[in-house]
Amino acid sequence: MRKILVLASAALTLAFPLACIQSARADNAPVDLRILAINDFHGNLKPPPGGIRITDPNDNTKKITVPAGGAETMASLVKQLRDGHKNTIFVAAGDLIGASPFLSAMFHDEPTIESLSMMNLAISSVGNHEFDEGKDELLRMQNGGCHPVDKCYRPEHPFVGAKFHYLAASTVDMSTGKTVFPSYEIREFEGIPVAFIGLTLKGTADIISPAASNGLEFRDEADTVNALVPELKAHGVEAIVVLIHEGGYPTGDYNECPGISGAIVDIVKKFDRAVDVVISGHTHQAYVCEIDGRLVTSGDKYGTLVTAIDLKLDPQSRDVISAKADNKIVRISALPKDPEQTALIAEYEKLAAPIANRRAGTVAETLSRVPNAAGESALGDLIADAQLAATRDEANGGAVIAFTNPGGIRTDIDKHDDGTVSYAEIFASQPFRNQLVTLTLTGAQIKAMLEQQWHDPTRPRVLPASKGFAYSWDPTKPEGERVAAGSMKLNGMGIDPDTPYRVTVNNYLALGGDGFTVLKQGVKPQFGVYDDEALFAYFQKNTPIAPPPADRITQSN
Length: 557
Hints:
six-stranded mixed beta sheet
């Protein structure tokens, strides 16, 4: 049935009537098209705690935080931005779901899919996080149906799937040789066809669970797009918009683009000249750029911005003749709450409340996930400590060291007025709900694993380590020699390369996730509790919690 649905969707996409092209407006007045875009929503139905950081309009040397985001106000802004525009379409550049706060994640992101469908989202590219729970679960997000394990959360309102269409031009199911979702969709505006190509970054397999990527191939972004151009032109398409889950790093404010760097720059330069507009994401940045003569945009993260892109289409050439964009802040103070979204959130909050509101404990101050220069963070240290505590007993694994992956830590744990922390906040900091695994590794394998923190030198992944383990690294040393073997100590004693140690990681890392392939050599695996459960239990036993000293990882030179 899934194959039939996917193939049927592809057939509808390809069946664009050429007669419509010929019926384009006879006059020469350009056709206006407004594209509204978001990216990296990550299930933030409620406003993210951090809002958005922008340049202070009264002092450009300072930054201010603007409360922003949330489905209730984003829906209202989308409606406002549609008003007065004859031709509009709402699209997204991936990571709408996955790594979500508790309210969405508890229900396998069904609330987010419903919320965005209510906003009349039309098209989205897949992102890497769309694959967090595997291909079959992503197909369920599109096509509907109850979760295979947790069943239906609201039997009176069965989950019908997304009303918008996912696109996955570069993601191929190796068992069929076909893309998981259609590569593109063509929409007509006053007789002018516009193609939307959707795809994720080619490195997706390296940043999702190896189990989730099994059987899938993620192909080169530019090669994929360029190969589709002749096919689109054969369908009479001249206006092409790419929705790509890959991005860049600018140095300016949210509507600027000075000094942009990152993968998106080279990708855009490699695109066929037929590509007119690129809507990007993944890097959680906000920018409006011109790269290689083309408009390139990104709308921050967590629903804090909606990008309004205004195109003019030539009815004769059927191509884009001008393009401009403006990132609009989803200002909580300036926008009304959409009543449909409010009702949806309230319904799911009622279902989630008995679990979400459980008291974990208290914090003395905010536990930050932001690493220092050596790569160590307060929250990362605490999570590693919690995982060691959960697996230290011989019956639970006999661990002496624990490591966790920094990419799995998604938000700070903030200190509120009374310091109380709820289970929902614990979960939000680690929303992937990975299971703990305790393995036996030699001291030499531990060092080799630590060296893999720099296997991608452009994006180091320094693993938070549990209390008692310490080492030093030198960025000036060549690859494979950055960790000084003599600096590796456990409770003050040197790590012996030949001695076996019991080490706890999560199941994502144990399978070689984030490039830590050495961990696949670990033996005598013992599975434990889930990471969120370990942190919750640690809070309950050790509250009040204060940030631990940053003395585990040091950087020399």
